[in-house]
Design a protein that fits this description.
- It comes from Penicillium cinerascens.
- GO terms for molecular function: basic amino acid transmembrane transporter activity.
- With about 550 residues, the protein is mainly α.
- It is about 75% helix and about 0% strand.
- It contains 21 helices and no strands.
- It is globular and about 70 Å long.
């Protein structure tokens, strides 16, 4: 057998497709193995995004960490977002097969640490390690679709990925609500850890091999790969993201990390523009208006979406008095809508490389309207049927946008840049989860704390700092209160939820304006983009 001697570039498929190499043709059995293994890894990753919405109260009580409860999710999401920008480049340097195996092992390690954590510090360490392992899975999943699926089927398979993500998010809250009162919160992590430990290597075995896989972790090949990593850019970007999100996630925002974060981000841009031979993020690509605005619009839209995912179960427990299990079920219709939206537009509408400009703007506006409607429906007495119907529509519009916006930006850019563009869009969406949990969680906690303190004062109740601390970390505590204290707690949670969803709606409208700026004309034959493509290859 003669191996191909090719020098990969940023535009080279990371996994040889059947058209590029007949020997790497993906059989039905292998395809089933890839889909199953990747799907289960995505399921584990996404359950960890939502598992805290219904398990948070139990963990906070067990670890005596009511005031730190917002960090249960934020630690995971911040770590995941810090790694996501690196995942595309690391997949290129080490190949997706190697990188996904490494990610699965780190994910399993984090889950083991979390399950066995005796203290809050160890628990948060486990959440950070789990987030690091989760960081590359979304990018790898999209890379696999681009490399292994035909252009005609890409929209459908991306819809399948979105459906898998939303299934995991919904299941995490539901399973935590059902199982935690029975078997305890540690069981949730013990059962996931061995599965992640096995799934990474299984997916690696199922993926087609490429010439770069052979000997990639031995001798000079490993040294060459390690040399290619942009350590300075990776460090400055990661530290910038961590400082910014950590500051905004705090109930009382410390100011000093924000200017330091901006300074580090400026240094990152300088490094990537002038010194990095293989930059983490091709800064020149962000000068492309369509790509930049698509990424920022996706960030804003998904931040609003994550606010709905994280805080509708909290609203259900604290304001409507639902049990944790029932509160988790509130995510089923909205995530069913999310999965259906991506699948339907991929199946029925996105059948070719074309502009979806008008479709993007219409769905953006509808998504903003649905999020605003949830703000006004988040009361103790609103119709549960109407509320769940609106959550379904909110998810439907969000899922449709995931597919429409990606297809539209691929239409606007040269095919040679699609792998990089896709990684950037995935990165912006990955950031949204962290920004949504960190910034949204911090905003919610600040509004809730202020509302609780004001409410107790207005009703003539003495200051109760211990109760405020408990309520901040345990929405299930609301229904254990009586009299005026319970009334104040319900009203405070209702107010905080409404303010958060209204902010999400405003953010979605701002994202609509940015999406409108992407334009509708394909840039494939545009001279500036052709020059840009040449610059990238150089």
């Amino acid at each position: 057998m003669v191996e191909r001697q090719t020098s990969p570039s940023e535009q080279t498929p990371l996994i040889a497709s059947a058209e590029d190499d007949p020997q790497s043709n993906v059989s039905s059995l292998r395809g089933l193995g890839i889909i199953t293994s990747m799907g289960l890894l995505i399921f584990i990753q996404t359950t960890n995004m939502s598992i805290m919405t219904t398990a948070q109260s139990y963990i906070a009580a067990d670890l005596d960490a009511f005031a730190e409860a917002t960090w249960f999710t934020s630690a995971f999401m911040i770590a995941m977002s810090s790694v996501t920008p690196l995942s595309g480049r690391l997949s290129e340097i080490f190949t997706p097969r190697i990188y996904v195996t490494f990610s699965g092992l780190v994910l399993a390690l984090g889950l083991f640490i979390t399950a066995a954590a005796p203290t809050l510090a160890v628990f948060l360490l486990g959440r950070v390690v789990t987030g690091i392992g989760s960081g590359g899975l979304m990018s790898v999943a999209i890379i696999l679709v681009l490399d292994l699926a035909s252009p005609k089927r890409r929209g459908l398979y991306i819809g399948v990925i979105n459906a898998g993500y939303t299934t995991g998010v919904a299941s995490g809250a539901v399973l935590a609500g059902l199982l935690t009162p029975i078997v305890g919160w540690r069981f949730l992590f013990w059962i996931q850890a061995p599965a992640a430990l096995v799934l990474g290597p299984l997916l690696s075995l199922a993926l087609p091999t490429s010439p770069n896989d052979r000997g990639a972790l031995t001798g000079s090949a490993l040294r060459n790969s390690l040399v290619r990593i942009d350590y300075a850019g990776s460090f400055t970007l990661t530290l910038s993201v961590v400082l910014m999100l950590s500051s905004l996630a705090s109930p009382q925002i410390p100011l000093w990390p924000i200017p330091v974060s901006l300074l580090l981000f400026g240094l990152f841009i300088l490094i990537e523009s002038n010194w990095a031979s293989e930059p983490v993020i091709p800064v020149r690509l962000l000068r492309n208006r369509s790509v930049l605005l698509t990424c920022v619009a996706a960030l804003g839209m998904m931040m609003a979406r994550w606010a709905v995912l994280f805080f509708t179960p909290v609203y259900a427990m604290a304001v409507r008095g639902w049990s944790p299990a029932s509160a988790g079920l509130i995510l089923v219709p909205t995530n069913a809508g999310f999965g259906a939206g991506g699948l339907l537009v991929g199946w029925l509408h996105i059948r070719k490389a074309s502009s979806y400009y008008i479709s993007c703007l219409i769905i953006f506006i509808l998504f903003a309207m649905a999020t605003a409607a949830l703000a006004f429906l988040s009361t103790p007495t609103s119709s549960a049927v109407v509320y769940l119907s609106v959550t379904f529509l909110d998810g439907l519009f969000a899922g449709s946008l995931m597919n429409y916006t990606l297809s539209h930006v691929l239409h606007l850019t040269n095919p040679e840049l699609h792998y990089i563009v896709t990684s950037l869009v995935a990165m912006s969406r990955g950031f949204a989860g962290s920004f949504g949990s960190a910034i949204g969680g911090g905003f919610f906690a600040r509004v809730l704390k202020s509302s609780l303190e004001t409410g107790f004062s207005q009703h003539g109740l003495p200051p109760r700092p211990d109760l405020v601390r408990t309520l901040l970390g345990s929405p299930a505590t609301v229904m254990q209160l009586t009299g005026l204290a319970r009334l104040v707690a319900i009203q405070s949670y209702e107010h905080a939820t409404r303010m958060l969803f209204l902010a999400g709606s405003a953010l979605a409208l701002g994202a609509t304006v940015l999406q409108a700026g992407t334009g509708w004309r394909s840039g494939v034959n545009d001279k500036r983009q052709d020059d840009f493509g040449s610059d990238q290859e150089a």
